[in-house]
Amino acid sequence: MARRSARVLAEGTDLALIDEEAPIFPISVAAELAGMHPQTLRGYDRLGLVVPSRAKGRGRRYTARDITRLRLVQHLSQEEGINLNGIRRILELESRIDQLTEQVDQLSDAMRRMQDGAGRTDVNYPRVFTAESTGLVHMGRTIVHAQLALPSR
Description:
Number of strands: 7
Strand order of the largest sheet: 3-5-4
Helix content: 40-55%
Mean pLDDT: 80
Order of helices and strands: EEEHHEEHHEE
Radius of gyration: 25 Å
Number of helices: 4
Structural class: alpha+beta
Distance between the termini: 63 Å
């Protein structure tokens, strides 16, 4: 699902609501919006800091999110004095945080659905969770009513 948001990409340039993930800006426009030289963008692409999509003619196409990321790289480099390897690590960690946040959101939604289902009257059986020795967890709806015999002495 593509996010939509209002962004001001360059001073005085309000691009209203655009799809942050749409690869629409060629390198010349992206460089201008980010306040950089196109060669700097090519270098960041080679280093893997900001990797744009490619058009059919192999030209780079940047998204609004890429431009925001370019500005962050520039800020970290020029204002904070962080080298490019440090910036790469920061960007990797931010990406990992985004993935984990998405996973937490999905798990929270699943938990909410389970809790909503537990209050319904059509559910006659309590939930049972079982785990294998490998750590794999299974969720069931029924309880097996079997008695295990204790070993005799």
